[in-house]
Write a structure and sequence with these properties.
heterodimer; A: 559 residues; alpha+beta; Sulfite Reductase Hemoprotein, domain 1; 4 domains; 5-stranded antiparallel sheet; 18 helices; 20 strands; globular; B: alpha/beta; 6-stranded mixed sheet
Chain lengths: 559, 125
Amino acid sequence: MYLYDEVDQQLVDERVRQFRGQTERFLAGQLSEDEFRALRLRNGLYIQRYAPMLRIAIPYGLLSSRQLRKLSEIARKYDRGYGHFSTRQNLQLNWPKLEQVPDILAELATVQMHAIQTSGNSFRNVTTDHFAGVAADEIVDSFVWCEILRQWSTFHPEFSYLPRKFKIALNGAKADRAAVGVHDIGLHAIKRGEQIGFRVLVGGGLGRTPIVGQVIREFLPWPHLLTYLEAILRVYNRFGRRDNIHKARIKILVKERGIDKFREEVEAEWAHLKHGPATLTSDDIERIETRFTRPRYEPLRDEDLSLAEPGFLNWKKRNVHAHKVPGYAAVTLSLKKTGVPPGDVTSDQMDAIAALAERYSSGELRVSHEQNLVLADVRQRDLQALWREARLLGLATPNIGLLTNIISCPGGDFCALANAKSIPVAQAIQERFDDLDYLHEIGELDLNISGCMNACGHHHVGHIGILGVDKNGEEWYQVEIGGNQAPASLGKVIGPSFARADIPDVIERLIVCYLENRDSEAERFVDVVHRIGIEPFKERVYGNPDQRAPRRERELAVA
Amino acid sequence: MATLIKGRRVVSESSPSPKDKVVRLEPGDEPSAVSLEGVTRVEINFPKFGDGRGYSIARLLRTRYGYRGELRAVGHITRDLLYFMESCGFDAYELREGENPREALASFEDFSHSYQRGYRTPLGA
């Protein structure tokens, strides 16, 4: 865990005071709706379909047991006793009262938490690999670099009113588990000889114009990280489009300019900023590093658990992950039990999870962008005991990486932007694929659902992606296949959209087509789509082209 | 008439003197294209509350083009913006209608520290 110093704490406290004043001025009619919107959004407060929604920041997804207990308490006291973990590794409360939000923020500040810049046209929560610090392929400690970025991007005087939201992801290991290709800026640590630096990608993103980011700089030595980012941001802040909200992300600027021209502009700006005050030194890194608490590992040996009961072994296969220290493992607690909205946890569960993290791990947990929770430092000899307890809490569904580990936005049940509901779709699919043996047979498959083209459920990078669309006030669902998170690729739409009730059948047909076409069990669904293309899948779902015509007419008749 | 804060004080605008040489920049203007010779005041317009381009222009004028005269934010200015504006080099602000200037002064103290090195530096530093 990063522990705040006095300055960190003071800033968070000062922010609470500032927002309390702003809320009072709004309620007294001294701030207009528009002004207050811009101010409340950068404190995570939305006005939603049925009530306000408050998005609480969990910087780079790292959370202590103490903080989780506070979240549980807040959800109980100010909300309805549950919260929703989002794909940006944050926690959302769906029913707070506007006038109580300053009090909630004050409570958060007592455990070094806040809701700063979780929305609005500013830097958002920096995200990273949820196995940071425990993965064997690590190049740099992602959390240290994320904290450096958190500080730099918090209350940035020049870049607090950007054309649009701005999302940065940092990956510190060889394998990309942070999806750096679909962020406004993606940073991937690399080592050249003895030198550490970052490959810098720019202009990626999902939303209504999904684009994979492009490399703007192959190798940026670490001391220059912030000055280079300032150069990118200055070009974007000045020239990013502000006339149309749908064209305001940096990806559009990069696309309009072309990556080479954009790079030239950034380099010209950087020539002035390079070696400036924001240049990082090893002292800076050390100052941050020393504020992180580290787990103390015992000298242990790897355990042989092969003779344990089958239920445990199923769980271990999917939800237990390798750890760089012998005798330890990382464990994913699944928030994807059938019948529960993906990413939702109750206050009671939060308390229980906080206790599990203390007993079985280092008193810390990580929120994954797949909306699950990770205990990163579990002794292998404790795995069976942990499994039993997690199972009682409904957190041991052995589906990590499988079809039912669905990523989903809150959708039309909560969100004012949504065209369609997403949670009932997720549930219907989970119910259809409830047979564990069949799920394991299907193997790795990311299924992502978004309730509208803002793509909060990352449907473009799901192996199967489902998008809620509105047709004359009715909810329809478009299906894409072949997306992938890392290396990033975007799914292709298979054809006309479907009614909600048809979705489980459609998924079933896609799966059957995959199983018939795969070379071996090692070839995943997405690999098959990339190898044979979407046509065979299309045919399986809609029938052959001759049969398809009448159906399309029917669709059009309905549309 | 809009209220003016200058050098962290509420002031009433004196009538324009012939010695004043004022340049007004819109958010899309290019500061490098402006001649700053003899200019006593640069005004940067913020036509909308959320338009952040003026911050970069201010920063460029102060750090790259060596401008040391008065730098005034005009347009849609509320107290909520003063801390960041000052950090970027502004020293005068025309508040929007209805904003209480005395209360607004407290906003310069909204935060006691800035994470970003090189901002909030004294003029010309």
